[in-house]
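Batch job 17 of 40 flagged for manual review because the log was empty.
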Amino acid sequence: MNILKGKSLFCHRLGNELLKQGVEVTDDESKRVDISLNVIRLTHQNSRIKVLRLDGIYHNSAQDYESKNRRIKESLHKADAVVYQSRYSRNLCDAFIGAATVPNTVIPNGSDPSFYEKKVHHPSQKEVLAFAKWRPHKRLHDTISSFMAADVRESSLFVFGETTLCNKYENIYFRGQRSQDMLAVYLQSADCVLHLCAYDACPNSVVESLVAGTPVITSNIGGAPELLKMVGLSDCICDLDPEYDYKPIDLYNLPPINHEIVAQKIRQVISSPPTFDPSPLYIENIAKRYLRFFEGLLK
């Protein structure tokens, strides 16, 4: 079995976990293997079965999305099996590059709960976190406005990730790009995380937050609501966006959202912290799902 080597933290974690579960894993592309796991595009040639892992797909009407999707579509037609990161991801891919005609399944990303052990941070007040690669549809300004509208006494919003904003807001702190370890320290002790982005196939920020034990407040569109339902946090899904018809959308010019809906949820989560079970997203359990799918392909 060949796991793609690269920057993907999830793929590294998946490969390490499969090793623990007795699977031979290699990143040597010249080695002949039974199965290769290819992220977004097929890149491995020396495998008997080529599995394609898909998340989102280009659907921004302001871009030439058909051209951007062409190589992904070619990979889909050549793949022997497909793993989608969410049902939303599968629906999106079906609409823009066509439905898979080979065995396929939905398996979300996962994270390692041990990574969040012994991360010590003792905040003196209530803390809300938001972290992302802040493109327009990630809704940073809406995140800030929602936090300000919540007006929770003795609370702060910490924003991680590169932005052009500066600390001109009271109780809002822009931390920029920080290490995964530093983020984990804040994440484990936060009262909640805001992820208001729409049309995200399987946001790793949501996966990491939930595995760290921190509740997430999110939009009703995309893969994030599926993650919250999986762990028992359906009540943290905010009805912010109209139902999506899987047609091209002006992704960087989304309509405004109702900040008070989010603000009310922030107040609720902070005053009465919800309980939930993140174990379905533990990398150990996600690896087991991959292994069952792979074993079925080999039979």
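Reviewer: the log was empty due to a logging misconfiguration, but the result itself is present. The longest strand covers residues 47-54. Unflagging and moving on to job 18.
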